[in-house]
């Protein structure tokens, strides 16, 4: 079952926000726990989420476009 683009984008952006706010010492472990506890996040495999977040450029950006999307300048329309 594929994840709709809007939900995919929300999951990536919320995971990114979680990591930016919490500033964990072990980023992968914190993301793993967040992914396991956040019910809707399981719609995106953890490995895919890690790959996308590892490619995040510096600055004010958000993910848009679903699985085939990319990091875009500015903030997301929906947090």
Question: What can you see in these coordinates?
Answer:
With 79 residues, the protein is mostly helical. It is 48% helix and 10% strand. It has 3 helices and 2 strands, in the order αααββ. The chain has a two-stranded antiparallel ribbon. A hairpin with a 5-residue loop joins β1 and β2. The N and C termini lie far apart (24 Å). The model has no long low-confidence stretch (mean pLDDT 94).
Characterize this entry briefly:
The chain has 79 residues and is mainly alpha-helical. It has helices at 5-22, 27-37, 46-54; strands at 61-64, 70-73.
Which key phrases capture this entry?
about 50% helix; globular; single chain; 2 strands; about 80 residues; mainly alpha; 3 helices
SSE series: HHHEE
* Estimated radius of gyration: 12 Å
Please mark out the parts with pLDDT under 50 across 5 or more consecutive residues, or reply none. Answer: none
Strand residues, percent: 5-15%
**Could you tell me the mean pLDDT?**
94
Number of helices: 3
The number of E-state strands comes to 2
> What percent of the residues sit in helical stretches (DSSP H or I)?
40-55%
> From the structure provided, what is the oligomeric state, counting identical versus distinct chains?
single chain
Separation of the first and last Cα atoms: 24 Å
Secondary structural class: mainly alpha
């Amino acid at each position: 079952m594929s994840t709709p683009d809007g939900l995919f984008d929300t999951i990536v952006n919320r995971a990114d926000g979680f990591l930016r706010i919490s500033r964990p010492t072990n980023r992968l472990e914190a993301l793993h726990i967040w992914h396991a506890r956040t019910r809707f996040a399981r719609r995106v495999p953890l490995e895919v989420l890690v790959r996308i977040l590892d490619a995040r450029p510096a600055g004010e950006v958000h993910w848009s476009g679903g699985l085939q999307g990319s990091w875009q300048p500015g903030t997301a329309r929906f947090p």
